[in-house]
């Protein structure tokens, strides 16, 4: 009798839970509705309540992770945490591997991204009602959907190619992209990124073929158009016109602003570069390159405080980047923040001990702090590693 009562209680609880999930006014359903309407604050509230009452539901964590991706600041870290919880609850939930992989790709965690995409590719494809939104390189929003059980692996192969591109393994990236194209040859992004991989491998004529194919499929594909101009060595005026037209065609695309900003930065138009990177940042705040480039433009104008602020924000997105530590250290040094600059150069050396630049800058910072013995040791180290720039300073302050 006791066993029968327990069984009935269990079935009653399960029926109640299933009924709660099925109800169109459940927190889960309301959360999905708000998410699809891009009302992420409301979606967050619904999914938070859903998870409080259903802490073992992996799909709730998956959706909450997607919501967090649309929040600034620490949102991406909370998104990663929720994706990981979802996979702990259900390691075979393919959709979550794709979401986490794309987020890792966005955060330049390329090895982790590749692991997630490979896991997604290996999983058996069962029935699912969950859709995965496609992200195009030329769109801020979604450009289509696919499901985990699709027989076409082209999207996954494309993302694997992007991961390998981030690791600068261009032959492997090219292999993945060729595989993606073999499954689906009418996607402009596939051909545009194949063109970039071929450019990096020095195969310029083959790259042009791929890039022109991308433009044939999508005449407004700004990245492919820009790469074609670079290969055909059009004049600077022509390049700037195309970049400006790309912004006109799609002013909400942060990449268009970033490309023109970088063009201006490399052609000494620092005020124009700052304006373009500021626009890019206002659209997509978590792109580390925009903060790095804008900080570099401020540094060129000797606006060291603003440069430091940008490099500091960039480091919240990529805290292991030696280049950012070097640049922030320099900005602090020129503001007479010697102790703070020293901390950056110490961390730089810890991350990249084979780079003489770290020893050089730490050495001159030690000198400013009147720590001559340590200064001379670092400058000698930089010189011994081939940095001739250290020699005149070494001769001046250490003899």
Automatic annotation (TrEMBL):
Record Pfam families: TPR_11, TPR_16
InterPro entries per UniProt: TPR-like_helical_dom_sf (IPR011990), TPR_rpt (IPR019734), Ycf3 (IPR050498)
Name assigned to this protein: Tetratricopeptide repeat-containing protein
Keyword Repeat: yes
Keyword Transmembrane: no
SUPFAM superfamilies: TPR-like
Record's signal peptide: 1-19
Organism: Algoriphagus hitonicola
Keywords per UniProt: Repeat, Signal, TPR repeat
Residue windows of the TPR repeats: 24-57, 154-187, 188-221, 288-321, 322-355
Domain of life of the organism encoding this protein: Bacteria
């Amino acid at each position: 009798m006791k066993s029968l009562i327990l069984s009935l209680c269990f079935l009653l609880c399960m029926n109640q839970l299933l009924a709660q999930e099925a109800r169109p006014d459940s927190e889960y359903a309301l959360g999905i509705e708000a998410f699809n309407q891009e009302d992420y604050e409301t979606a967050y509230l619904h999914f938070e309540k859903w998870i409080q009452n259903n802490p073992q539901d992996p799909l709730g964590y998956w959706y909450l992770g997607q919501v967090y991706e649309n929040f600034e600041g620490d949102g991406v870290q909370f998104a990663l945490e929720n994706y990981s919880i979802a996979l702990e609850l259900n390691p075979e939930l393919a959709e979550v591997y794709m979401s986490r992989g794309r987020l890792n790709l966005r955060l330049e965690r390329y090895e982790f991204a590749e692991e997630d995409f490979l896991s997604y590719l290996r999983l058996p494809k069962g029935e699912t009602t969950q859709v995965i939104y496609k992200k195009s390189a030329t769109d801020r929003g979604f450009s289509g959907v696919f499901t985990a059980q699709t027989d076409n692996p082209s999207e996954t192969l494309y993302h694997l190619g992007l991961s390998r591109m981030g690791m600068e393994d261009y032959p492997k990236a090219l292999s993945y992209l060729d595989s993606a194209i073999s499954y689906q040859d009418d996607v402009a992004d596939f051909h545009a990124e194949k063109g970039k991989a071929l450019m990096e491998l020095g195969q310029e004529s083959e790259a042009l073929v791929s890039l022109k194919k991308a433009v044939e499929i999508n005449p407004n594909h700004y990245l492919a158009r820009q790469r074609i101009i670079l290969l055909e060595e059009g004049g600077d005026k022509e390049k700037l016109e195309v970049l400006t037209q790309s912004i006109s065609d799609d002013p909400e695309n942060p990449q268009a602003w970033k490309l023109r900003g970088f063009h201006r930065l490399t052609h000494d138009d620092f005020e124009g570069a700052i304006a373009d990177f500021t626009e890019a940042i206002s659209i997509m705040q978590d792109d580390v390159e925009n903060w790095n480039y804008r900080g570099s433009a401020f540094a060129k104008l000797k606006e060291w405080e603003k440069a430091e602020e940008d490099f500091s924000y960039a480091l919240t997105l990529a805290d292991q980047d030696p280049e950012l530590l070097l640049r922030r250290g320099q900005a602090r040094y020129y503001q007479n923040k010697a102790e703070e600059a020293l901390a950056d150069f110490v961390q730089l050396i810890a991350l990249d001990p084979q780079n003489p630049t770290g020893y050089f800058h730490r050495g001159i910072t030690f000198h400013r702090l009147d720590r001559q013995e340590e200064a001379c040791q670092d400058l000698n180290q930089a010189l011994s590693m081939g940095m001739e720039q250290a020699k005149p300073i070494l001769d001046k302050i250490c003899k």
